[in-house]
Each structure stands twice: as structure tokens, then as C-alpha cells.
Amino acid sequence: xxxxxxxxxxxxxxxxxxxxxxxxxxxxxxxxxxxxxxxxxxxxxxxxxxxxxxxxxxxxxxxxxxxxxxxxxxxxxxxxxxxxxxxxxxxxxxxxxxxxxxxxxxxxxxxxxxxxxxxxxxxxxxxxxxxxxxxxxxxxxxxxxxxxxxxxxxxxxxxxxxxxxxxxxxxxxxxxxxxxxxxxxxxxxxxxxxxxxxxxxxxxxxxxxxxxxxxxxxxxxxxxxxxxxxxxxxxxxxxxxxxxxxxxxxxxxxxxxxxxxxxxxxxxxxxxxxxxxxxxxxxxxxxxxxxxxxxxxxxxxxxxxxxxxxxxxxxxxxxxxxxxxxxxxxxxxxxxxxxxxxxxxxxxxxxxxxxxxxxxxxxxxxxxxxxxxxxxxxxxxxxxxxxxxxxxxxxxxxxxxxxxxxxxxxxxxxxxxxxxxxxxxxxxxxxxxxxxxxxxxxx
Length: 443
Hints:
Elements: H1 2-27, H2 33-36, H3 38-54, E1 66-69, E2 72-84, E3 87-94, H4 96-99, E4 106-110, H5 122-128, E5 133-139, H6 154-168, E6 172-177, H7 181-193, E7 202-206, H8 218-225, H9 228-234, E8 237-238, E9 249-251, H10 253-263, H11 265-281, H12 284-297, E10 303-304, H13 305-317, E11 327-328, E12 331-332, E13 342-348, H14 361-365, E14 374-379, H15 391-414, H16 425-432, H17 438-442
Parallel strand pairs: 4-5, 4-6, 6-7, 7-13, 13-14
Antiparallel strand pairs: 1-2, 2-3, 3-5, 8-9, 9-10, 11-12
Helix pairs in contact: 1-3, 3-11, 5-15, 6-7, 11-12
């Protein structure tokens, strides 16, 4: 019912939106003197804000056609290297005719499947491109996938991650942003338990809900305050006709967007008030900055209901991964099996979606990862979005991840690990810090 009401409201607003666009076009004509008056500028600005708030936002483009390597512009081509029903694996191919043969680390970025498109990580990809061979998971909008194509749940998500890593081959470094932290860590644990020849060389988890009991946020408290049946009956809906995915049960993207905007309603209202003021003043740079952000923020996709519900129950209600009893198709997920994958966790000091310590919990679970291959970093002064986008991501967080990946890449290629894999965490500690006979020393 929520979905049908949303579509009806959007349809009813369409004539008003087109009328607003037509009137704004007339006000902005070069020879319209009224449009240049204070009243005309205010009216034009109000019409544009109205149009921005009521239109439907489609899937944005990555738009990354060029990067710079050592100051030299290099063309970038976006290509699908592996196609699956619910996800495409994209590769940002840098022109070897310009760069020559490079041996940069392969990086698989796992984008969040939580309402926004993978293009939310445009800035993340852009910062990594000059020195890495970048791949990203481009999740499909469930409203566009016919019911006949089957279900997609958390277990399928984990299977996809394993398939992508196996496809990319050895020495693949994985970066999981936000929601995928749990399934990506689980996928790594399963590959380790099965002793698969290809396992991630490193795993970077950024702002992910590994253990939401640590410094719980409003999002975490909401997820625990209701039974899973409430979420199933209240926030999931069937996709209406004439969409390709009609009759598929989904968690609509507009529900997710409404929740996020409600959490920071005053901030969004202030942003749109400032947009109105900048439009009246003719401040084109500020207007573009606002529109670029909201073009991405307002573009949302639907999630398969079974994936959404299983994720809520597994990660936010049962805490099955940190408690050690999460299963994947009946197979226990044992993070203690991970020995060959270095792990880095990144958190934002002011993150109001994934609280401090929730991502760091992964390091406590991976007890058999060598102590010198476990890293944790907290970025001061940033919230959830700032962990993977913006100035501090580019100048402070990304250089640390780059150094982490390069260090592990060097160790894997040279075999200079500095320790023996396969020993328990306590044994590694004992090996690195042998017992000292202080009486003999003092004697």
C-alpha cells in the first residue's frame, strides 16, 4: 500500500512540476524584465526548489572518464566484466596506451546495498583510481528485476562476493563500505574455512555494523525495538505495475530515504533554504555543489525484501556474526579461520549511523590474523558519509588505506611475512615477545 500511495502522489505532482518548469523557463528568458526583478528572482528560485524536491531521480552515472597518474591525464573506460542477475561487476579500465603496463594492486570495492546506488562511492573510486586497478559491485534496482528471476537474500549476497573474488584471482584487496562489512567478512571467513586457494589479500571495512551493540545509534535502536514481523508488514511492499519487477516484494528506496532525511530533517531544511538564497543571489558554485550532492542523495533503489529482512535480523537483532553462530546455507561462519587476509577497520568520530567500535569489532573476531596485519583508524571530525567521501577521505583516510594495501601487497609478493601463518593468536604473541629470564639478566 505504501508503494502505491507513493506512486499515486508522484503522479499527482507531475502536472504541477511541469507547470513549475514551464513558468521558470519563462521567467529566465533573457528579455523578460520581470524575471530580473527581486520578485521574479524569488519566484524563479522557489520554483526550482519545488522541482528539485518533487521530481523522480534516476540512476546517476559514475562519470569518471579520466584520472591523473603522475600528473598526466589518463582516459578511463567503464566496462562490465561479470554480469549477474542482481549485480554487475564494473571495472574502471585505465588506458594502457598512455600508462604503459602497470602493476597496481587490484581493489574490489563492495558498494552498500542499502538504498543508494553504487555511484554513491564515486568519490571513493575517484581517489583510488590513480594507483589501483579498481572494480566495484554495481547492484541492480529490485523494481527492475522480474519475479521469475528468483529471490536474492543475504546468503546470495555472500555467494556473489565469493564469486567476484574468485573471478578477480589472487592478490585481490577488498574494500567494504557500510552495510557490506558483515557479508564481506563472512565471505572471507567462509573462503578461509574451505581453504580456498584464492582468498582476499587484505580486507578494509569502513563504517560497517559488525557489532551494533557497541555505542548503538538511533538506527541500531530502531532495528532492535521491533520484531522482524513488524518490518516485514510495515516497511516492505510489492512493486506495482508497470515496473518490470511488478509483484516482487521489496524494501522501497523511498522508505530508506525518508528515514535518513527524518533523522536530520533540520539539516536538510536548512540546506534547501540556503539553496533558495543562493539561487536568488546567483551564486552558481554553491547551487551546483548542493545539486550535485542531492542528485546522488535522492537517487534510491529498491532492495529485495528477503535480503533486507535477513540483514536486519542477522546483523542488527540477533548479532549472530559477533556471537559466533552466524551460518551461511547451514555452514558456520568462523572468523577465527581467517589467517591469510590482513584486516583494516576505519570509523568516523561523528558517525551517527554506525557508532564507534562497531566496525573495530571485526579485529576482535579475527583472532588468528597476525597482530601486525590488523589495523584500526578513527578519522576525527567526520560522520558516516565523510568516512568514504569528501576532503578528509581524500587527504587523510585514503592515503592510509593506500599504504595498508601497498604494505600487504609487498609482503605477499616477496613472501616476507615476518611470521608463520596458521599459528593461534596467543602463539604469535609468544613468538614475538618471548619470555625473558630476568634473574639471569640481573645476574
